[in-house]
Design brief:
The complex is a heterodimer of chains A (about 425) and B (about 450).
Chain A (H helix, E strand, L loop, with lengths): L1 H11 L3 E4 L2 E4 L3 H39 L4 H23 L2 H9 L2 H49 L2 H20 L7 H4 L7 H8 L1 H11 L1 H54 L8 H12 L6 H25 L3 H6 L7 H27 L1 H7 L4 H4 L9 H39 L1
Antiparallel strand pairs in A: 1-2
Helix pairs in contact in A: 1-10, 2-5, 3-4, 3-5, 5-6, 6-10, 8-9, 10-11, 10-12, 10-14, 11-12, 14-17
Chain B lengths: L3 H19 L3 H15 L2 H7 L5 E7 L3 E3 L3 E10 L5 E8 L5 E6 L2 E6 L4 E10 L3 E5 L2 E6 L6 E6 L3 E6 L3 H8 L2 H7 L9 E2 L3 E7 L11 H7 L3 E6 L5 E7 L7 E2 L2 E2 H18 L3 E7 L3 E8 L4 H10 L9 H11 L5 E5 L6 H13 L3 E7 L1 H5 L7 H27 L3 E5 L4 H15 L5
The chains are: A mainly alpha (about 425), B alpha+beta (about 450).
Chain lengths: ~425, ~450
């Protein structure tokens, strides 16, 4: 599923992204360097804008009184030099070189009149340009993060890694969608715009044809791959939690028993005034227990804590003797369900869920078809609203709420019947 | 109800849906729709299958009465009596906060097919005396994807009576004191002369003396009628008066004055009962909360322990009323050992002591001094230290006054701290025995 989800992402997002009228290969190693350089420039641009604003603030507030003493032309030429240097540098970096020459070709006096606006245009363009290149970096970062968290999920089977990888994958899609660089099979992306091939199929091809068309579309495949990724991932988490819980618990109890035995043994050694080296776990537990002995001196508290451990060890041994299955129940080794039945039942459940989700998604996405099938009035079927994308929400919300409503009704009915049963029993017993 | 995971899924679905609409990317719209539906689609089936009534939980303890700081093994069995499988069941068996989980875990997550049963167990350390309830059991059911859940607390409790700690007695036993005490059972000198086996002395014959007690050799030697006197082997009767007013609850957690007082009472009861003395207990504050009349016998120790298990610091001190109540029930002469911080009204304390003495009882007061139980002097800042000293001075002054009053009635007040509480009570008892007071 992970591979399918990744394949969907990387096959559907064009590896070439448009950048300043050039198609750039996303995974070009050089681009990473270029992107880093762009970010560095972006930071510089932002700092320049900030410093410039700050300088003008200072100059405007402090220079005027001194201005009377100095030649006014001095400031004009000073400002001009600063503007030329700044703008020329930005222009060279962010525009084709001729623009810089064009700017420089203006007579200084005339240029000076326009320089603030030109300067801001140049700098903001530079900033936008850098931000644009950040998309590339973000895409790369998201893709790498998706791979890392995906692999971590496969290794550790934790929900947080599953959701991290899923969100990373979808964010890379979202980013590509934001920049307009997704190639998702055009027919279904414009499903809502009439006239189109799908609608024709839906309207005149019958239910099976419509469903087949929906199921065969690349849009559906891509969405299903991503959905199945999270569905299968959660199923894996479930199976892992149920199966591994018993073994983890067993290991934990064994570890606890080892620590108790170690501390109990240390207790005897300490009484014989022998030097004892404890494991890290045992030392931590001993310190924690000793801290609870409030009125005892540290050394005495440790001895008391060790004594407690000796009592615990004796008690545990006694329990193991008295209760034959005590070791099993402590470690819950027999609590794990049978793996085969667990997997079989889980896969059946998943299949049913997925079928349900596909069917309901189909209903949401083919409103017009569904309305025709249920025999909705012609005014509704042919209304403009039905052909709008928002119709998905119009159908989705009632579907979602109907499930929640059904659950509430079932809960109310079952509780009511239980209450009646309860009162009936009370009545009969009374 | 949606779980956190279900919430995250639905929010992610909606976000993807909205984002898809904003960027006219229908792949994201479809994925958002799928996620949103997936997070609620199993709700009706789950609600139907989440039938808590068909889940049976049984809890068993390996013992119902236990000493504080000892351990108890709790076994919980969970079975599915229904006809539908439970995909994910989390069982958490709760225990009182004053207990510590010593080994194992008190919860389990599992899957139960119809008719299946799972068992798990854990070991608790009972840290505080009293009657505690283990339970309730919290059941949480989730669907397989962990999107929705239902939970219910099953109010099934198992009571466990925790006696005060036995470790002081155990220490005493470990030190071999038991053997020493054992040799002394019932053998202690008393000044009460009577029929016994131990020779006490000779005296002149008085009319009404038994002829059989005439020592003929001494009579022949002196020429006057001389009779022999023997020591009687009688045991004493002790009533432990335990002040359980709220001021006795002062001190560090689980190491309050009352906790120490109870440990001392346990120690005294054990030692005295082993020596075949009669021991009784009365725990009082504004009224008498626990009363056990003085009786002998080793088994009687558990009766006292049971009474001590329920003692909690509560109410103000009305010592005189309580003492009146106790004397009405135990009018015979005995040795009263009052354990109190004497933080009530001086008049009330003095009146109560007068009452005890008026009935020809002997009284010994062991008084835990509050500040010694409440703070570590090393842990205080200079300002706090000065404040603590001032409070201590004030308290000391009050106690001195009360002590002087009691001394006039020939009642000794022994100030005790955490370090010398237990030795003091035993040594005072032994000293009283040696002096032969309060014979029954």
């Amino acid at each position: 599923m992970l591979a399918a989800a990744f394949a969907t992402v990387f096959m559907n997002i064009q590896p070439y992204m448009k950048y300043e009228n050039f198609w750039v290969y996303v995974w070009d190693p050089g681009l990473l360097g270029l992107t880093a350089w762009r970010i560095w420039l972006f930071i510089n641009v932002i700092l320049t804008i900030l410093m410039s604003s700050f300088t003008s603030l200072i100059v405007e507030s402090t220079i005027p009184p001194l201005l009377w003493l100095l030649n006014p032309e001095f400031f004009i030429y000073l400002a001009l030099t600063e503007a030329v240097v700044e703008t020329f540098t930005a222009a060279i970096r962010f525009f084709p070189i001729p623009l810089a020459y064009i700017i420089a070709a203006f007579p200084p006096e005339q240029w000076l009149l326009f320089w603030p606006s030109i300067r801001w245009i140049v700098l903001s363009y530079a900033a936008t340009s850098c931000v644009w290149s950040i998309y590339f970096l973000l895409f790369q970062v998201l893709a790498i993060s998706a791979i890392i968290t995906g692999v971590l999920f496969l290794l550790r089977v934790k929900t947080k890694y599953l959701f991290s990888s899923f969100i990373s994958i979808q964010s890379s899609f979202g980013l590509a969608a934001l920049t307009g660089h997704v190639n998702m099979g055009t027919p279904l992306t414009s499903i809502f715009l009439t006239p189109n091939v799908i609608f024709q199929q839906l309207l005149f091809g019958g239910a099976s044809g419509a469903l087949a068309r929906f199921l065969m579309s690349p849009l559906f495949f891509s969405a299903l791959a991503c959905y199945l990724y999270i569905e299968a991932g959660l199923l894996l988490v479930y199976i892992s939690e149920i199966i591994s819980q018993a073994s983890e618990r067993g290991e934990k109890v064994e570890r606890q028993l080892r620590v108790v035995e170690e501390l109990a043994a240390a207790s005897s050694m300490i009484e014989l005034r022998e030097r004892v080296t404890l494991s890290k776990e045992a030392s931590i537990l001993l310190e924690r227990l000793a801290e609870m002995k409030i009125f005892s001196k540290p050394e005495a508290a440790r001895v008391e804590a060790l004594h407690d451990m000796r009592i615990l060890k004796a008690y545990v041994e006694d329990v193991f003797l008295r209760v034959p299955d005590a070791r099993l129940t402590l470690s819950t080794k027999d609590a794990a369900p049978k793996v085969t039945s667990l997997i079989r039942s889980s896969l059946t459940g998943m299949l049913l869920r997925v079928c349900g989700v596909i069917a309901l998604s189909f209903i949401c996405f083919t409103a017009l078809f569904v309305l025709r099938q249920v025999g909705a009035p012609l005014l509704v079927v042919e209304s403009l609203e039905v052909a709008q994308p928002e119709i998905v929400l119009v159908l989705l919300l009632p579907i979602v709420f109907s499930f929640s409503m059904a659950a509430t009704i079932i809960r109310t009915l079952t509780r009511g019947s239980k209450r009646r049963e309860g009162s009936g029993e009370e009545g009969s017993s009374g | 109800m949606l779980t956190a995971r279900g919430g995250v899924t639905i929010v992610t679905g909606i976000f993807i849906l909205v984002f898809g609409f904003s960027t006219v990317n229908y792949f994201l719209v479809l994925l958002g729709v799928m996620l949103t539906i997936a997070s609620v689609v199993s709700m009706p089936y789950f609600t139907l299958s989440a039938n808590f009534e068909r889940v049976e939980v049984k809890r068993t303890l390996d013992k119902e009465k236990v000493f504080a700081e000892e351990f108890v093994h709790v076994t919980v069995s969970v079975s599915n009596k229904g006809r539908m499988k439970i995909d994910y069941l989390e069982v958490e068996d709760r225990y009182p906060e004053v207990f510590t989980l010593a080994l194992g875990e008190n919860k389990i997550s599992t899957r139960l097919d119809p008719g299946d049963e799972v068992k798990f167990s854990y070991i608790l350390q009972c840290r505080k005396r009293g009657l505690h309830k283990i339970g309730p059991t919290k059941l949480t059911m989730k669907d397989r994807m962990g999107m929705v859940f239902e939970e219910k607390e099953i109010p099934a409790y198992t009571e466990i009576l925790v006696y005060p700690s036995y470790k002081d007695v155990r220490k005493l036993e470990a030190l071999g004191a038991k053997r020493i005490l054992g040799r002394l059972f019932g053998i202690h000198r008393t000044r009460q002369k009577g029929i016994g086996v131990e020779f006490f002395g000779l005296r002149d014959y008085f009319p009404m003396d038994d002829f059989r007690r005439i020592d003929w050799k001494a009579t022949a030697r002196t020429g006057d009628l001389i009779v022999r006197e023997f020591e009687s082997e009688r045991n004493i009767k002790i009533m432990i008066l335990l002040d359980c007013s709220s001021s006795m609850g002062g001190g560090l957690p689980d190491n309050t004055k009352l906790d120490f007082a109870i440990r001392a009472a346990v120690m005294l009861a054990k030692v005295a009962l082993e020596r075949r003395d009669e021991v009784g207990l009365a725990a009082f504050s504004d009224k008498v909360y626990q009363y056990v009349p003085p009786k002998p016998g080793k088994d009687y120790f558990y009766k006292i322990l049971e009474a001590l298990a329920f003692v909690e610091p509560t109410g103000g001190t009305h010592m005189k009323e309580s003492v009146e109540w106790i004397i009405r029930r135990s009018p015979r002469r005995m040795l009263y050992i009052l354990i109190s911080d004497l933080e009530g009204e001086a008049g009330d304390i003095v009146e109560a002591v007068k009452l005890i003495r008026a009935h020809r009882n002997h009284l010994l007061v062991l008084s835990p001094f509050g500040p010694w139980f409440e703070v570590y002097p090393e842990a205080l800042s200079p300002v706090d230290k000065a404040l603590a000293e001032a409070i201590s001075e004030e308290l000391l002054e009050f106690r001195r006054k009360v002590g002087d009053e009691l001394a006039r009635m020939n009642v000794k007040v022994v100030d005790v701290g955490p370090d010398d509480f237990l030795p003091a009570i035993v040594s005072q008892y032994l000293s009283a025995k040696r002096r032969g007071i309060a014979l029954r």
